[in-house]
């Protein structure tokens, strides 16, 4: 029996359906992680089967790799691809500048590595993900397991000097043990409520030795495809902030 789609599923699928139209034969694609990205992979698989579209996919997580393989998307590693034409991925929040919070699904590090190795990064999201100010969604930060409690304390101390409203953090758990990323790291979720200066915060986080990467994607996304509950999608282009197109 076909699964009944929720309003959120319909909106996510609408965004993915619009984004899959951007794919052309010959493209090397970055494949995101999460429920919206999964719609994209599914619709991409459909185009491959029905149109004989020739593409390769570089997955951002083991979860996406399994899904893409099952749907017949030919997979290559990022090193095999070398560089990507287009990456399509979801987001937990995005603002008008297309600064994103990512990592709710625990794949932020590989997602960022893949996104910045792409000519174009397109975010797909349902309309609830669009916010005026980032930070209601807890900011995921990937940290090394060694000395994680000390890293957590240093992160919280650093937050005293940041333009944020909350300063607590929690170690992400999977049942009774810490959640471990595909790269073998832990995730700290920062409960900031409001992020006044994403660039300042991102720089300060990544300067802490135990921090591997944080979930703020700044000037990485080129376009957002926003899905709506009425099964339509609209697009938002990133503001032209830089002189060139390089990420
Ligand atoms: O960053 C991510 C995974 O690390 C996801 O893109 C993000 O969590 C959005 O997920 P979903 O599409 O399920 O709402």
Automatic annotation (TrEMBL):
One of its GO terms (molecular function) is ribose-5-phosphate isomerase activity. It catalyses: aldehydo-D-ribose 5-phosphate = D-ribulose 5-phosphate. One of its GO terms (biological process) is pentose-phosphate shunt, non-oxidative branch. Substrate binds at residues 33-36, 89-92, 102-105, 129. The keyword Protein biosynthesis does not apply. The active site is at residue 111. CDD domains: RPI_A. Keywords: Isomerase. Pathway: Carbohydrate degradation; pentose phosphate pathway; D-ribose 5-phosphate from D-ribulose 5-phosphate (non-oxidative stage): step 1/1. Homodimer. PANTHER family: RIBOSE-5-PHOSPHATE ISOMERASE 3, CHLOROPLASTIC-RELATED (PTHR43748:SF3). Belongs to the ribose 5-phosphate isomerase family. Catalyzes the reversible conversion of ribose-5-phosphate to ribulose 5-phosphate. This is Ribose-5-phosphate isomerase A. The lineage of its organism: Bacteria, Pseudomonadati, Pseudomonadota, Alphaproteobacteria, Rhodobacterales.
